[in-house]
Amino acid sequence: MLKNIRLFTICLLLLAPVATGCAAQRAGLKNVGYAIQVGAFSDLNNAERLTKKLQEKGIEAFYFKRENGIYAVRFGDFERREDASRTARKLVKDRVVSSYFIAPPQHSVSVVREPSLEKTPAASLTKPPAAVKKSEQQAFRRDKSDMGIIAARTAERFVGIPYRWGGDTVVDGMDCSGFVRAVYNLCGVNIPRTSREQYRVGDVVGKEELKDGDLVFFGPSPDEINHVGIFVGNGRFVHAPRRGDDIKVTEIDDAYFLKRFIGAKRYF
Asked: Does the reported pTM lie above 0.85?
């Protein structure tokens, strides 16, 4: 009898899922690998033009506003740094970009300081990237448990920016799910493309339990979700109302969204 109990216990341990502290390892999610970041623009129009240029080559690129107010463009999800570097060097050779920065996995733009790229000569791009300082690595590890807060603050930096990327075409602008996908990408998590697919993953969160960084979903019914935003605290969420429109902050209890609220999910 005791032998059978021990055998049963061992089987349970072998079959049980491995617990991790990384949201991206939940079902349907994965960490973003090495990414390529290009450009350092004070003028939003320049970031838009570069993004469009990359998208016309079939590259899923997006631009974003860094904490210092400078716009940068990011794309790619590579398993190895060598693969990301090879792709970036080809873009330099083809004169699509003039400089680049390889963002490592789990690299959040809100945590680790990034180098300036605006005046980096193309000839220097073959040199190995400078190692991230130990103090910066420690800062990232220290803030890793607060990725929801980082996602919310990252989303807020998009507010007021007239987007012209994502969606079906570059000209149409981005859609709501493309916006949240970009924010989560910057925080190191690769989430599905559409709002309906995004709703199928992550942990269910009650409306009264919402925290910064949670995704909030809207639509006629759970089977017809057609809008998503990022909760940023104080009963507000950031979202892309429609393609080509500015990113906005809206009260979650706004009359229109209140009656269409479906639920919320947490990924960190």
From this structure: no
